[in-house]
Amino acid sequence: MLQLADFPRTICGKLLSLADLEIIRRIIDANPSATRAQISRDVCLAWSWRKPDGGLKDMSCRVLLLRLHRCGLITLPEPRTTNGNGQKFSRRTKQGEVKENIAGQLQSLLPLELKRVASKKDSSLWNELIDRYHYLGYTPLPGAQLRYLINSPAGYLCAIGFSAAAWKVGPRDAWIGWSAERRVQNLHLLVGNSRFLILPWVRCQHLASKILSLCAKRLPLDWQEVYGYRPVLMETFVEKDRFAGTCYKAANWIYVGATQGRGKLDRFHKHKVPVKDIYLYPLDKNFRMFLV
Hints:
Layout: E1 9-11, E2 14-16, H1 18-30, H2 36-47, H3 58-70, E3 102-103, E4 113-116, H4 120-133, E5 146-152, E6 155-164, H5 170-176, H6 180-186, E7 190-198, E8 202-203, H7 207-227, E9 233-239, H8 246-250, E10 254-258, E11 276-282, H9 287-291
Parallel strand pairs: 3-8, 7-9
Antiparallel strand pairs: 1-2, 4-5, 5-6, 6-7, 9-11, 10-11
Pfam families: DruA
């Protein structure tokens, strides 16, 4: 539980001081009828807190404000609508049901189509497939993100998602060689491969590494189109006790170490989580020039 003595403190990538906390309180007090969304936008404007494309860091700010509210450091107005966050995903459709087995040589499944999830229909299908068949189930991806459905003449083969990179990872940060200050400035140039699901009825050697290679070529262009800048490095985390990381190795991702088996908010080494191997893939051969 956060207390005043814990400040200054970095929350959601923002170094928050007691003066910043006072700014939030003044904004809340100045407009008692404001919604949580309006308060978030006003706080972003007061801090000039913006994304690389110039837009306000509104979603990060909402998470920050909610955390302060839950700790009793500020008092937000009651939410006026519900958004379903925290509720279990339960949508089930015929399109998401198990299909007949798809097996054979990779060549027999070509050409592969990377279909970027842009419509509500595709989004619902992606969510359903991940929830039904991925061992982690469905949860919303963090921050900036792109999702793809991989299609073929035989039907859908895969659902894959990319989102905001992890805030702080020791082996990754040491391999990149950046300072804490440069990490804060340039973390948006990293993208995390947050979900990767080959549908359970699909059996094809080399398919997973082929999909990773196609995504590495396609993603920087799509990210530029959607967010106004190009990422230069991808990361992923592979549970050591569950997977060997074979497809990432085959697609030339670089192993840089393993996590310590702690949650991202575990400052006191009390909460164990699965140890994960860390793999990185440069999207630009000069990536360190942009990061360091």
